[in-house]
Write a structure and sequence with these properties.
Blueprint lengths: L29 H13 L7 H13 L3 E5 L2 H11 L7 E5 L16 E5 L10 H6 L5 E7 L8 H11 L2 E5 L7 E2 L2 E2 L6 E5 L12 E5 L2 H11 L1 H5 L21 H12 L1 H21 L3 E2 L6 E2 L5 E4 L8 H10 L16 H4 L3 H5 L14 H7 L2 E4 L7 H16 L1 H7 L5
Parallel strand pairs: 2-3, 2-4, 4-5, 5-8
Antiparallel strand pairs: 1-9, 6-7, 6-11, 8-9, 10-12, 12-13
Bound molecules: pyridoxal-5'-phosphate.
The site of pyridoxal-5'-phosphate has 14 residues, from helix 3.
Length: about 425
């Protein structure tokens, strides 16, 4: 035990060197700088053609008729919710295990999120639970490819078709992921990517809406992109004098960064993939549970999380403390479950939805499967450069903690 003693019990940490640089993101180089400078020198930071060029890049890469750039992913989701026709009292089924922007913008349209379970093995929306939650008021589903793991699209698209529901894909974590070889983000009625700085093809701030549907595109343009609204061939163009009041246009400097980062997406994703696959193999051998993407899919690694098995004597917070005592950068998951947030549990959501009578009560004890999964999660860093030695050190530290888990559980003070 002496040389193998976990650092949390007084041993020597496995990781003695700082390794912040291996996690650095985004990765910029002269190509990004040149792209930004070119726009700056041209001078027009609002209506520069670089934003159209970014949309063309997305159209081509994702094989869709329309791509519309937005100031951020949250606004692109608002545009998507409106464009599929969500209105007062309509229900939209969403996972609780996601970032709030997958659900909350729907409230501004008077639509009501209905939270459904996520699957324990893949973290995607559970099609069986979704079907149970459909009511005569349900109009749409939001499918989130959480952490880069594609959700079960065959089942979700089929049940949406059966019940006449629209499918909105929130692919903000999933640039480069595929389902049966087709790109996530281009599988539903409308897809949205966030290009916020942490994402896989970052622009600083930005969002992209993708669709094959001319009416969805026209609706998104008329929400708040006056320039694109003027150009619409159909009747939605009549709103160009006012729009619907929310300015959605992406800044040209962000679009320049978004283009040069999208061009390097596959190269960046491949490095993350190699590091994370090795990490998953090693940590699984040590007893952690890795997430398993559906076999029809290829995932990408926006984030890498594991579950602690039911028989693991450590709770997630103690495991994190033990790993970090080894010099690692492990944390609890970043997103709280949405159905347990005060916006919903205290009924404040109707401040936004303004329904004459609140249609729904949100119970923090709902979604036992998702809640149980969330309580076992631990989040590892994604290394953005080739870092196999570092990955191996994380595996060594993990194996050490798991070997000594009963002792750590018995001896370590509770973690606040
Ligand atoms: C799953 C998901 N959807 C939507 C968004 C919102 O995107 P943005 O931050 O660009 O508004 C984010 C993240 O930021 C996200 O993680």
């Amino acid at each position: 035990m002496s040389t193998d003693r976990p650092a949390i019990l007084g041993g020597t940490p496995v990781l003695s060197q700082t390794h912040d640089d291996a996690e650095r993101w985004p990765l910029f180089d002269g190509r990004d700088e040149a792209a930004v400078l070119a726009v700056l020198r041209d001078g027009d930071l609002s209506l520069h053609p670089v934003t159209r060029a970014l949309e063309d890049d997305y159209r081509q890469r994702f094989g869709v008729r329309h791509a519309l750039a937005h100031a951020n992913g949250t606004l692109a989701l608002l545009a998507a919710f409106r464009a599929v026709g969500l209105g007062p009292g309509d229900e939209v089924i969403v996972p609780s295990a996601t970032w709030w922007a997958s659900a909350v913008p729907a409230l501004w349209l008077g639509a009501v999120p209905v939270f459904a379970e996520s699957e324990a093995q893949s973290a995607g929306l559970d099609p069986v639970d979704v079907e149970r939650r459909i009511t005569p008021r349900t109009r749409a589903l939001v499918v989130v490819h959480l952490w880069g793991i594609p959700s079960r699209m065959d089942e979700l698209l089929a049940l949406a078709r059966r019940h006449g529901l629209k499918v909105i894909e929130d692919a903000s974590h999933a640039h480069g992921a595929t389902w049966r070889g087709r790109p996530c983000g281009a599988l539903g009625d409308v897809g949205v990517f966030s290009l916020q700085s942490h994402k896989l093809a970052p622009a600083g701030e930005g969002g992209i809406l993708l669709t094959d549907d001319d009416a969805v595109f026209a609706s998104a343009a008329s929400l708040g992109d006056v320039w694109r609204c003027w150009e619409l061939p159909g009747p939605e163009r009549r709103f160009a004098g006012t729009t619907f009041g929310i300015k959605t246009r992406m800044a040209a400097l962000s679009a320049a960064v978004g283009r040069s980062q999208l061009a390097r997406l596959d190269e960046h994703n491949a490095i993350r993939y190699d590091n994370c696959r090795r990490l998953e193999a090693g940590c699984s051998a040590a007893g952690l549970l890795a997430f398993t993407p559906p076999p029809e899919s290829t995932r990408v690694y926006f984030e890498v999380l594991f579950r602690l098995a039911d028989n693991c004597p450590l709770d997630a917070a103690v495991f994190v403390a033990a790993m970090n005592a080894e010099g690692a950068h492990v944390s609890l998951p970043r997103y709280p479950l949405l159905h347990q947030q005060p916006l919903f549990t205290e009924g404040r959501w109707n401040d936004l939805a303004r329904l004459p009578a609140p249609l729904r009560h949100y119970d923090p004890l709902d979604l036992p499967q998702t809640t149980a999964m969330a309580g076992t999660l631990v989040r590892y860093p994604v290394f953005t450069r080739p870092a196999l030695e570092l990955v191996d050190a994380y595996i060594t530290a993990t194996a050490r903690i798991m070997r000594h888990a009963p002792t750590i559980a018995a001896l370590s003070p509770p973690v606040a």
